Amino acid sequence: MRQSSRSTKYPGVFRVDAETFRVTARLINPKTGKKRHIERVVRTTDEHEAVAARATLIQEAQAADGKAPGVRLRVGDFARSWIESKAPTLSPYTSDRYVDALDNHALVALGDIFLDMLTSVDVQGWINKELAEEYKVDTVRGWFRVFRTMIRDAELNRDPTLRISFPSGEDRADANAINAEQLAAFLAAVRQSFPFHYAIAATLAYTGLRFSHVSAFRWEDLDEEREIILLRRKQVRGKIGPVSRRKPAPRQIPLPPELAAILKEHRQWMLFRQAKGLAEGWMFPSKAGTLRTPGGLWKAWQSCAKVAKIPDRFTVHGLRRTFNDLSRRAGIDAVVIRSMTGHVTERMREHYSTVDLAEKRKAMGSVIRVLQGGAKPKSRDRGRDRRPKTKEPVSAPG
User: Fold this and answer.
1) Where are the domains of the chain?
2) Structurally, what CATH architecture does the domain formed by 72-171 represent?
3) Cα distance between residue 308 and residue 306, in whole Å
4) pLDDT band at 364, cuts 50/70/90?
């Protein structure tokens, strides 16, 4: 007799008791084309282990089915097993984004097609239908990228996601990146109208680091004597963890004088206002004292992008792309750029190269000089958010 169980947030995963899960799935019988039910009892206390066990169950069943002639999977069946195998290694945000792109968009149009029969015409038809619904091109492109990643993991004999076209007006090589003049004007607008966000925006712009790393900085990570910032952690939606291999970052970055001055003023302002999050040692807490999310910058971002006359899409992540563009235009070696931003392309070249702190410092200084060649920031009046101009450096509590 089957034990009673209750569902979890993961499809096909049911909790029987504190130490037991029941995992189930439905697959297509390769001989009859009909669905068949498979299940397994898993002894574990961790939901993620149960999810992984379900993915293993599905893979084993599919491997066994593969011995039979004529085995065929539909796009929807493969998509579900694919997302289940990926879920334990993805952040909650990324997992939700994948599920939305597939379940609510790609699979609605393509889910019933046999995987080995999917063509670029089918994929283009789906893209055209989404665009006809007046979704933004960048939004549809994001769904397509998730779908393309999944299809390439299927290792088909031919890739049906090749030669897919999007409207040329928004298919830009420099999408979500701006030039030096626009960046200078943007930062000046943030400094003038949203001073609370200026320090984190400037740090992102001057370092090219990911938001998840910069937003997790603590004051103890700032080594003013050695003129460096140490990268010790990341945060995603308030969840703190170590810097991961999937999204790497350098262990330390140079602290140029321009950024040091901005951070010093920011710290003095926090001390003057006794800002929430100061006692916990966070460098860039929200006004509520919690760790920030990119969404908390959205209103300021849109407003300042308009002031800076940035006509195209420009997000928080766009500062990272802009840093890479300005670094390249400043003539900085690609190995140095990757060592600073944590990119992992051209691994072998970087593996056999070494980049010392002096090279990184020189590179960051070059980017700042390119930036300062743009529009000069205007003088500002902080109004109610005016920060005190103290002559002596002030130390924040550790």
Assistant:
1) 1-71, 72-171, 180-385
2) Orthogonal Bundle (1.10)
3) 5
4) confident
For residue 265, how many C-alpha atoms fall within 13 Å in the half-sphere facing its CB?
19
- How many C-beta atoms lie closer than 10 Å to residue 11's C-beta? 15
- Closest listed residue to residue 188, CA positions, set 372, 392, 396, 388: 372
Question: Residues in the chain, how many?
Answer: 398
Q: What is the rounded CA–CA span in Å between residue 371 and residue 202?
A: 11
Question: Quick one: which of 316, 315, 348 has its CA closest to 215?
Answer: 316
For 97, half-sphere exposure in the C-beta direction (CA atoms, 13 angstrom radius) is 13
Q: Is 7 helix (H, G, I), strand (E, B) or coil?
A: strand
Most confident of 171-175, 246-250, 258-262, 353-357: 258-262
Element (H, E) at 282: none
* Rounded-to-integer distance, Cα 55 and Cα 57, Å: 5
Cβ 304 vs Cβ 183: under 8 Å: no
Q: What is the pTM of this model?
A: 0.52
Give the whole-angstrom CA distance, residue 55 versus residue 88: 10
**Three-state secondary-structure class, residue 246:** coil
CATH class given for the domain over 180-385: mainly alpha
